[in-house]
Amino acid sequence: MTQARWGTAIAALRAQAEAVRAARSRVDELQDAPAGDGANRHEQRDRLSTAQTVWRASEADHLRCAGALLRAHLSRCRPPLRWPVATVWPRPWRQVWRERAHDRHGGVWRAIPGASLLAQAESAAQEEFLGDAIEAIKDLQASLHGHRTGPRLHERYAPDRSTPLAHAFPGVPDGRSAPTLPGFPDRSHWINRTFARGDGWRIQPGCEGELEDHAHAVHTRVERFGAAVLRLLEHHHGPAAPGRAARLRGAARWIGREQHAVPLLTPWHRTLNPVQGITLATLGWLVVAIAAIPCTVAMKARVLTDHPKPILLGALALAGLGAWSVHRAGPRLMRQPAQTIAVAGAAAGVAAYLVMRLQGPVAGYFFADPYERYERQFSNGCLAASPYRHDAIQSQVTGGILVVRPISGDPTLRLGPAEDSGTHPLRPQDRGTREVLEQYGCHLP
């Protein structure tokens, strides 16, 4: 049973390694493709960005898979059948996922094996191919160190305009270092790198040898580590299980399917005609009207002053969701015929007007004061033709009780709970009130 599990795990690791190579080949293919014009160029750039994100996320998944299997082998445990992979966000948020994963290098830096796995491998009994895995781990950690310390070797500088760009590009660009800020003599300090006066960035003179290309070599070292672990496992646990094709998970499922993974967004027009501008304004009005609903309800319920933060956060969330929806659907709408755009703008304007006009009365209906609740529950119903109708009584709220005194001298009604902006129905508070309401056939809650 354990041997079968190792065969399945090795097949999965081999599939991850093939996915990484396929993703890298896809990136090279898109980079070498001839540049198009206009929309085609924009589409090529979008595909390339998605392919690079998928490649880096696949590398991170490959590192996690290889690290988990190496740890299981060194611990003499059964291999895990499932290992954590990077989550690909749902389709509506796929653009945000791509930007986040691209900025973080697909999670490669977080997936690099740490010191614990290196110590476990070095303390284990010497095995064939284990030394290659140890060297690969050390190379990956060197890449991580270069990634973390690389920014510290740069500085702001004022370039020498007389130096040709072709001459300055191969080495350190000519020019003088930007003056440091008072109190921060270190040119690589983040304050100097952020606020110092300079027109460009360069490696600090004399630090060229320290900036080894470890960070850029991480892609090659990921594949080398995966290959070393694969050789080690195949040597000790046999080859991959025959006839078992591992099902790819995570970002590797989208290799070669960039348009399906992250659909290309239609860009906005640089200039809008009057119909498009009015439609966009009415859509913004509708977003503002919808975002005002939590505040209106809170005001009618008299809780806005007591709990302002959650209500304002809810309004901001609705506004952000509406703005994001307009941002996603707006470019496609603006490319429709003028009549379609005008109809959409008119519909949005009518909807915004109705939302603004109706949200107050609707919220007021549910959060009414005791007098309005008495009229809706009794005066306009079972007591409409009695001495307790609204134009023949005197009423007041005393101690949370609505006291209703008819002018005719009939018994007084006491109803509760009489609270402002309440949602509970009024109930009789004494026997006499209950007898009067039963006499007129009122439904008692």
Task: Give me the secondary-structure topology.
Blueprint: H1 2-32, H2 39-74, H3 94-103, H4 108-111, H5 115-123, H6 130-149, E1 154-159, H7 165-168, E2 175-177, H8 190-195, E3 200-203, H9 218-237, H10 258-261, H11 274-291, H12 293-301, H13 308-334, H14 338-366, H15 370-379, E4 393-398, E5 401-406, E6 413-416, E7 427-428, H16 431-439
Antiparallel strand pairs: 1-2, 1-3, 4-5, 5-6, 6-7
Please outline what is shown here.
By secondary structure, the protein is of the alpha+beta class. The protein is 55% helix and 7% strand. It is built from 16 helices and 7 strands.
What report would you give on this structure?
The chain has helices spanning 2-32, 39-74, 94-103, 108-111, 115-123, 130-149, 165-168, 190-195, 218-237, 258-261, 274-291, 293-301, 308-334, 338-366, 370-379, 431-439, and strands spanning 154-159, 175-177, 200-203, 393-398, 401-406, 413-416, 427-428. By secondary structure, it is of the alpha+beta class. It is elongated and about 105 Å long. It starts with a helix and ends in a 6-residue tail after the last helix. Residues 164-172 have low confidence and may be disordered.
